[in-house]
Structure formats: C-alpha cells, structure tokens
Here is the input.
Amino acid sequence: MRTEIVRIKETIASVTAEEAFIPIAGQEIGRQREVLEEYVRGHPAFLHSLEPLAVEEDAPDIIRRMAEAAARAGVGPMAAVAGAISEFALRAMIRAGSEHAIVANGGDIAMFLAKPAVVGVFTGPARIRDLGLKFMPDSGILGVCTSSGTVGHSLSFGCADAAVVISRDVCLADAAATALGNAAKVKEPAFLEHALNTAWVPGIEGMVVIMDDLMAMKGRIPEIVRTRMDPALIQCG
Here is the structure.
C-alpha cells in the first residue's frame, strides 16, 4: 500500500492504494476532467451557478450526479465537483480489483476500506484541533467531505472552521458540506444546531461542524480520536 499525489491541471489528489491501481485513478481523473471541461464549454452556467441547475437527461454521468447532489443540498453543481472526481476515480480502481483505496481531492474524500483509516479534520485557526474520525472496514464506498469559511479556497458564505459531511454518496457529501458551511454563520450552540438541521437531507449519515471552540454533531459519527495534523498532508476543500 502506498500514497501518491496525482496532479492533473487544477486537480491535486492524494491516492492511497496498492501501487498498481494508482495510475488507474489518475487516468479516470483525467477522463472525467475532460468530460467536465467539454460540458462547461457548452453550458457555462454549470460552472458559475450558485443555485441548483437542471441538466439534460442524456448529460454525462458525472454531470448528472453533480446536478442531482446539488439539487438535494440546495447549492450550485460545482459544489460537488471535488467529491465527484474522488468518487469516479475510486470506482475505477474498484472495478480494476482494488480492495482498499482512498482518494482525497482537496479535502473531499472517497474511501473503500479493507482496514481502519483515520481521516484528520483540519480546523485552521480554531481552538478545537488535531481531531480525526476513525472509520472501520466497510463493504461499500463512503464519502467524507469538508468545507470551511476560514481554511482553503472553497467558496463559503459561513464562518465554520470545518463543516464535515459523511455519506455513501460522495457527490452529496461534497454538496452538503458546502450547504452546512454556508449555514454556519454564528458561533453559538443553537445556531450551529440550526445549521446542521438546515443542511441535513436524506442520504447523509453524519455531520460535524466546528467553529473555534464549539463543535456540534448530527447523525452517526465514527469514533473521534486525537491525531496530529501533518501540514504536508493537509488538503483544504
């Protein structure tokens, strides 16, 4: 098992798997990026819309998955792009026979676990820090996606240091993390609880939102453990 960084244009993904499967992830990332870029050339609103956007029934699979997730979460379709790329790359490795693989694309993670894995949650300037979520082996794909109003380059209208969503649908996890981050505007327990309830939609398994010294959770959350965050490994969505 090894971890490599796959760089394709703006995509910088960390891929963990047996060495033979890592090039497959890179090929799929490149393929799906081409599909996205071609679609956006003919549909520029897909790139810029901050609201859900309807797409054609015969649109490419990744386009339809992103649009569906965005509609469920109430955000623009590009809010699901990093999670979509992660999931499609992971699925390509699984089809090729991978039994354990993790694709982390800008902090939006798709996992297929044959052994336990800890996902660190980077919270930037928050006083709550060095936390990780410990996931156990699982027979299905799981998405863990994060948005932030204080860390990284993702567009957020809220103030959360970390808004984390767990879902079997990685596209939905990514879109819903944006929605949760947008809703987390005030550092008070009642407002964070309201943000969780506002962003929650069917298909989500769990949510965590951190703002400075406050943390709120909803749904099923794996074991929370202490983990030292290595700055060299941090990816911010």
User: Anything to note?
Assistant: The CA atoms of residues 91 and 130 lie 30 Å apart. The domain at 2-229 is CATH 3.10.520.10 (T-fold). The chain has one domain: 2-229.
